């Protein structure tokens, strides 16, 4: 971390550790509920747990209904992630938990997650549910081996409104908040100047939603951006209130995004802290970097803490270590933009395999709205006049930029300005292969592609290029400027 961010993180940890009593509120405005002693409870059930009823272990007071998807074999240490799911109005504890559990299993991650669906007291989620959700969180993290740095929220409709409001008030607990068809985002005043260290967001909304206008989510995005929070917005053209939940590409991307996140300021477990301290010794670090298990551990720990080790690996004198560090960055955000900036330095590595791994990793980060990654890939792809840059690298960078544009082209043209600028410039590159690759994701935005043909001469492309530049100014630059003025 930079000195400023490190100081902010330490300050945030200190303030959140303050001893407020039950009945009071935390620094974010969320309720404080005293922990419950769950030690008398039987071990948490595994597998698909249906029709669950959570009750206080002593008073037997009913807390909430739940549906849980739990690995059949639990790890000995607290290594599992927890995803808490909130249904839409009139729904039950089954949705969207069932959908997310099946999607997580399809990606081979089901043995790493406890997926917990909760039921609101009434038809939709209200303030009265806050205590019950906090108690359910307390229960799940007590009876299952949960890594508390890996706890996330997801909700649809009423559940999206709720996980936004509830999650914003409990950012000291949750690493990421995901939502379909939610409202705006109202951030607490506390921590607004620490956006890069706060909870990250993944927003999905359809442009044809007649129950909850997409303008609310756009406003929420603008609020997050103004406060320098990390976010991803996926707008879906013609998507309605319900069908956006079943969009496989977006759901898959959302899960990988979640899996790459760790809470940024929560204290590491003692075992993980001890493990990372080994890397302070150069000889020990060199030995560990040669062991495949090391990279699995660094990915499991993740976050800014493991990011410091990844930064060391990126500067290693051993090409394989640099390559493995880049590959690890395809699965984790680590220290966020700081890690991406370090990763970008590998684009000038002398070893082709290291450069290739770095390009792929930057493509993953560019897809999740890393401006640093988008700019680095754009500069590489457009380095036609540089004798130091191999065409193969330019080609790989172009392909990663095009891939990163796929999901935004579902409907969101307001973000990722650096990405669009690079692709538009590549449409006029001297190499047809790059022009074709850059145009591939863009052509879906305009029915006739504005008459652009990547195979013709520069003179023949000029008219179509002018139309695309006008389209670019209207749909992207003007929209970005409007955001900046808010």
Tell me what you see in this structure.
This protein has helices at 3-16, 97-106, 130-143, 158-168, 214-226, 248-259, 270-277, 282-289, 292-301, 303-314, 319-328, 337-344, 352-367, 371-381, 391-404, 417-426, 432-442, 458-485; strands spanning 47-55, 62-70, 80-86, 113-118, 146-156, 176-180, 200-206, 231-236. Helix 5 (214-226) links the parallel strand 7 and strand 8 (231-236). The protein is α/β, with parallel strands linked by helices. It is built from 18 helices and eight strands. The radius of gyration is 23 Å and the shape is globular. It folds into two domains: 21-259, 3-Layer(aba) Sandwich (Rossmann fold), CATH 3.40.50; 270-485, Leucine-rich Repeat Variant, CATH 1.25.10.
Q: Count all strands and give the number.
A: 8
Q: How many angstroms separate the termini?
A: 29 Å
- Based on helices, strands and strand pairing, what is the structural class? alpha/beta
Strand order of the largest sheet: 1-2-4-3-5-6-7-8
Low-confidence stretches: none
User: Would you tell me the overall average pLDDT?
Assistant: 93
Q: So, CATH architecture of the largest domain?
A: 3-Layer(aba) Sandwich
Number of spatially distinct domains: 2
Helix fraction bin: 40-55%
Approximately how much beta-strand content do the residues carry? 5-15%
């Amino acid at each position: 971390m930079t000195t400023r961010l490190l100081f902010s993180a330490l300050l945030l940890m200190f303030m959140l550790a303050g001893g407020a009593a039950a009945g009071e509120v935390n620094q974010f405005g969320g309720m404080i509920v005293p922990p419950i002693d769950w030690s008398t409870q039987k071990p948490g059930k595994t597998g698909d747990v249906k029709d669950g009823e959570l009750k206080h272990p002593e008073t037997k007071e009913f807390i909430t209904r739940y549906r849980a998807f739990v690995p059949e074999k639990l790890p000995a240490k607290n290594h599992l992630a927890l995803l808490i799911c909130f249904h839409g109005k009139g729904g039950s504890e089954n949705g969207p938990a069932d959908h997310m559990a099946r999607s997580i299993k399809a990606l081979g991650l089901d043995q790493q997650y406890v997926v917990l669906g909760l039921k609101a007291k009434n038809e939709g989620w209200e303030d009265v549910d806050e205590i019950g959700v906090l108690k359910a969180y307390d229960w799940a993290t007590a009876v299952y081996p949960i890594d508390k740095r890996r706890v996330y929220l997801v909700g649809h409709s009423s559940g999206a409104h709720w996980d936004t409001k509830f999650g914003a008030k409990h950012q000291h607990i949750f690493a990421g908040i995901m939502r379909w068809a939610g409202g705006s985002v109202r951030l607490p005043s506390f921590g607004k100047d620490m956006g890069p260290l706060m909870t990250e967001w993944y927003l999905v909304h359809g442009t044809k939603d007649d129950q909850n206008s997409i303008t609310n989510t756009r406003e929420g995005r603008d609020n997050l951006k103004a406060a320098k929070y990390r976010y991803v917005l996926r707008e879906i053209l013609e998507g309605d209130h319900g069908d956006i939940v079943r969009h496989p590409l977006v759901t898959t991307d959302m899960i990988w995004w979640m899996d790459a996140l760790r809470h940024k300021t929560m204290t590491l477990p003692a075992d993980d802290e001890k493990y990372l301290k080994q890397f302070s010794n150069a000889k020990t670090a060199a030995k560990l970097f040669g062991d495949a298990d090391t990279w699995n551990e660094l990915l499991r720990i993740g976050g800014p803490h493991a990011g410091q080790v990844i930064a060391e690996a990126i500067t290693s004198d051993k090409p394989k270590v640099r390559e493995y560090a880049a590959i690890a960055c395809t699965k984790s955000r680590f220290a966020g933009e700081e890690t991406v900036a370090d990763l970008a330095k590998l684009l000038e590595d002398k070893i082709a395999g290291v450069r290739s791994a770095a390009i792929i990793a930057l493509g993953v980060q560019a897809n999740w709205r890393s401006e640093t990654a988008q700019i680095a890939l754009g500069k590489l792809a457009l380095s036609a006049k540089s004798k130091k840059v191999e065409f193969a690298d330019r080609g790989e960078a172009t392909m990663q930029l095009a891939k990163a544009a796929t999901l935004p082209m579902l409907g969101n043209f307001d973000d990722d300005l650096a990405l669009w600028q690079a692709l538009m410039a590549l449409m006029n590159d001297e190499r047809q292969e790059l022009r074709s690759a850059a145009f591939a994701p863009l052509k879906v935005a305009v029915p006739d592609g504005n008459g652009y043909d990547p195979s013709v001469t520069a003179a023949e492309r000029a008219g179509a290029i002018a139309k695309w530049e006008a389209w670019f100014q209207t749909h992207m630059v003007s929209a970005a400027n409007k955001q900046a003025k808010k």
